[in-house]
Design brief:
With about 110 residues, the protein is mostly helical. The chain has helices at about 5-10, 15-30, 35-60, 65-80, 90-100.
Length: about 110
């Protein structure tokens, strides 16, 4: 599945809107693809980069875009929890970044 690493490169970009669009696409694909494709290709290549991109947005004054990515991750986790399997450290870092983001303050 050579497409998964190529897809992951899109969330590593510098244009926040492009990163959000790529993260949403990856998370939507995580819900719609087969469990085998999710386990062998999509999750190993894409989950970590989506988590990292979301954290980067949340900590680099682009909180609203980070929240959009976080929303996509929550949707994917709700419908395809295996997508986030094995990502405990990345999830903990993301939760920390989200807690510090201005967008979450009242």
């Amino acid at each position: 599945a050579s497409w998964a690493p190529k897809l992951a490169t899109h969330v590593a970009g510098t244009d926040g809107d492009h990163v959000v669009m790529a993260a949403r696409a990856i998370c939507k694909l995580a819900v719609r693809c087969s469990p085998a494709a999710r386990k062998r290709a999509l999750a190993p290549a894409c989950c970590g980069p989506v988590l990292a991109a979301t954290q980067k947005l949340l900590t680099n004054d682009e909180e609203l875009l980070g929240v959009d990515c976080l929303d996509a991750l929550v949707d994917a986790a709700g419908e395809a929890p295996a997508f986030l399997a094995g990502q405990a450290e990345g999830l903990l870092q993301l939760v920390g970044a989200a807690a510090r983001a201005d967008a979450f303050e009242p």
